[in-house]
């Protein structure tokens, strides 16, 4: 395994992602979104899995969006979320250099 030193810009981006998934609720949300068949999850399906209020779930989803790990799209009444595969690969590459994307 070969480790590559990160640039300050890479550290900035990656640290936001790691900070976002350090929260158990956000890590679970990201996992649920990423593993949803079809690649997107409705917020209506996510909220029922937690004993939290809708605004609290929305806050956690906002944190994941701002960290660049998910995207969201509003359709009529509901919002739908998708994981950003490249961002997740970049986080994984820091932990497992063998999966580091080619530069």
Mean pLDDT reading: 89
The CATH topology comes to: Arc Repressor Mutant, subunit A
Q: Determine and state the CATH class.
A: Mainly Alpha
Alpha carbon gap, first and last residue: 16 Å
- Our estimate of the beta-strand percent is 5-15%
Task: Strand order, main sheet: write it out.
Answer: 1-3-2
Run of helices and strands: HHEHHEEH
Number of strands: 3
Please state the overall shape, judged from the principal axes of the Cα atoms. elongated
Q: Write down the domain tally.
A: 1
How much helicity do the residues have?
40-55%
Task: Map the helices and strands.
Elements (H helix, E strand, L loop, with lengths): L7 H14 L2 H11 L6 E2 H5 L6 H13 L3 E6 L2 E6 L1 H11 L8
Antiparallel strand pairs: 1-3, 2-3
Throw out a few tags for this protein:
alpha+beta, 3 strands, Arc Repressor Mutant, subunit A, three-stranded antiparallel sheet, 5 helices, 103 residues
Characterization of this structure:
The protein has one domain (8-95): Arc Repressor Mutant, subunit A (Orthogonal Bundle), CATH 1.10.10.10. The protein is an alpha+beta fold. A hairpin with a 2-residue loop joins β2 (70-75) and β3 (78-83). α2 (24-34) packs across α4 (54-66). It is elongated, with a radius of gyration of 15 Å. The chain contains five helices and three strands, in the order ααβααββα. The longest helix is centred in the N-terminal third of the chain and has 14 residues, at 8-21.
What is the gist of this entry?
The protein has 103 residues and is an alpha+beta fold. The protein is built from 5 helices and 3 strands; from the N terminus they run H-H-E-H-H-E-E-H.
């Amino acid at each position: 395994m070969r480790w590559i030193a990160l640039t300050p810009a890479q550290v900035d981006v990656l640290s936001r992602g790691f900070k976002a998934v350090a929260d158990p609720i956000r890590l679970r949300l990201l996992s649920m979104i990423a593993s949803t068949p079809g690649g997107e999850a409705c917020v209506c399906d996510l909220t029922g899995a937690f004993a939290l209020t809708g605004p609290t779930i929305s806050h956690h989803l906002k944190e994941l969006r701002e960290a660049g790990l998910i995207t969201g799209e509003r359709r009529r009444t509901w919002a739908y979320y998708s994981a950003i595969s490249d961002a997740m690969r970049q986080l994984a590459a820091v932990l497992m250099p063998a999966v580091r994307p080619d530069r």
